[in-house]
Amino acid sequence: MEKFADEAFIEVSSGKGGNGCAAFRREKYIARGGPSGGDGGRGGDVIFKIRRNLRTLAHLRYAHSFKAENGHDGEGSDRYGKNGNDIIIPLPPGSVLMDAATGEMVRDFGKDTADFLFLKGGNGGWGNIHFKSSVNQAPRKALPGKPGESRRLRVELQLMADIGLVGFPNAGKSSLLDRFTNARPRIAPYPFTTKIPNLGVLTLGDDDIIIADIPGLIEGASGGAGLGIRFLKHISRTRALAFLIDCSGENFLDAFDILHRELESFSPDLVKKQRLIIATKLDLEGAPERFAELKARYAGENVVGISVFSGLGIAELAAALGKLAAAPPGAAEESA
Ligand SMILES: Nc1nc2c(ncn2[C@@H]2O[C@H](COP(=O)(O)OP(=O)(O)OP(=O)(O)O)[C@@H](O)[C@H]2O)c(=O)[nH]1
Ligand SMILES: [Mg+2]
After folding, report:
1. 112 — pLDDT class (breaks 50, 70, 90)
2. Which phi and psi angles does 70 have, rounded to 5°?
3. Phi and psi of 278, rounded to 5°?
4. CA dist., res. 91 & res. 53, Å (int)
């Protein structure tokens, strides 16, 4: 599924340490106060954290530069500078970090999901309180903070779809992906427009749901008819399937049974997944009646009707897909 890799380039920097301070006590009745300059604070670190609810790298593309706070400078009266705040960069599970220039692997979060401290902030410089000695009671010496570090990284993520769209050619799968997501697949009024799978991201509140649109299936696909069923491997690890059934003409009533059979012959796990039946093109004449017939025939299934053209049922469908994506994983995913 390398076609679906999501990728982002980011620049990350840890904070510089604060400078140490050279200062002297000035108190009443004390003629020559000793040194009182505090140390600079430590610069903030760069830390990566895996967040389960993230599914894509989209958040890295808006703000691609991430910098931790610098340490604050030390001050007189023995005051130490505050440490700079760390920068915490959230990543979706399965992210891989590589050096942008060399491609060298930095971290594979597919193997280890623990927080990753990547760049440490610079240490703060010592204030002059550290430099007092028997021979120098009034040292003017204080040290600057150490610099932070910067690196450019390539972040890569192999997307895995939550929901797979299956249906006969021309059922409206790509049109739905186009309507719902950032993906812009080819759409045309003839069969087998889609030749390779497309992925799109549907954002619902805080959650990203990844939808896979695959080439159309026909009766006999498991025996090689049409484009065959090898594309089904792209939906074998989804949480749920949506079966799209074109209600603009004939063949709508048996479509689900035929699709079910083709899927089952590819893998019995596929038909154990959570599923939803979507009746499409309800804006066309006769389609609402066919939708009613379909619902009656598959009374035990969850059947929703939509029109991508008129917008009918689209909001309800988004909510239903959100629920499906949050459902426990299907049997195929557990065994994968
Ligand atoms: N009237 C109407 N036409 C639709 C609707 N949705 C899709 N279509 C049309 O149906 C045709 C097929 O749409 P696609 O989205 O390409 O269908 P597909 O299922 O991806 O087809 P394949 O890629 O060949 O499997 C196009 O001409 C679309 O414009 C709809 O809600 N109403
Ligand atoms: Mg298509």
Report:
1. confident
2. -75, 155
3. -115, 115
4. 9
Q: Which residues contact 84 (CB under 8 A, 6 or more apart)?
A: 15, 16, 18, 41, 42, 43, 44, 68, 69, 70, 71, 72, 121
Residues with a beta carbon under 5 angstroms from ion ligand 2: 173-174, 193-194
Ligand 1 mutation target, pool 165, 166, 168, 170, most atoms within 8 A of CB:
170
Gap between the Cα atoms of 197 and 229, Å rounded: 12
Identify the pLDDT of residue 136.
83
d(CA 45, CA 88): 8
pTM: 0.68
Q: How many other C-beta atoms lie within 10 A of the C-beta of residue 211?
A: 24
Q: What is the pLDDT of residue 328?
A: 64
Using a 6 Å cutoff on CB, does residue 89 contact ligand 1?
A: no
Q: Is the pLDDT of residue 198 over 70?
A: yes
